[in-house]
């Protein structure tokens, strides 16, 4: 059975690029356009990994990760932040919220897939 990855980004084109790469590697993908939308999609189903942008309307990625980690089913779900933010303070906030990796845009799909394969839950 394919593993499911939640992709959260307010850019539809970026979600599409990430989804195509992930689906090509054999993953199932759920897309969300911001943190609020993503939280509404965390309905107890198994999510093996979350890839989230940082800067989004309605709810930013770091707030979303903190809230997702409050849910028992997603407490241990690994998170990759995929963002234009390269600042150390943002990275530390991301790590404090529970992010396991930080990939800076523009990114190579192969680089992202390597991070995904290392972190995705069994």
Automatic annotation (TrEMBL):
Record-annotated Response regulatory domain positions: 4-120
Entries under PANTHER family matching the protein: CHEMOTAXIS TWO-COMPONENT RESPONSE REGULATOR (PTHR44591:SF25), STRESS RESPONSE REGULATOR PROTEIN 1 (PTHR44591)
Record organism: Sideroxydans lithotrophicus (strain ES-1)
Residues the record lists as 4-aspartylphosphate modifications: 53
Pfam families in the record: Response_reg
Keywords, comma-separated and alphabetical: Phosphoprotein
Designated name of the protein: Response regulator receiver protein
Signal peptide: none
């Amino acid at each position: 059975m394919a593993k499911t990855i939640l992709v959260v980004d307010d850019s539809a084109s970026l979600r599409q690029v990430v989804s195509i790469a992930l689906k090509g590697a054999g993953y199932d993908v759920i897309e969300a356009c911001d943190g609020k939308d993503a939280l509404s999609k965390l309905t107890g189903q198994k999510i093996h990994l979350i890839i989230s942008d940082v800067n989004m309307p309605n709810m930013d990625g770091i707030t979303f990760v903190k809230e997702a980690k409050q849910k028992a089913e997603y407490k241990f779900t690994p998170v990759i932040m995929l963002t234009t933010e390269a600042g150390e303070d943002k990275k530390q906030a991301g790590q404090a919220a529970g992010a396991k990796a930080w990939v800076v845009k523009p990114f190579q799909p192969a680089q992202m897939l390597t991070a995904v394969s290392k972190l995705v839950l069994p």
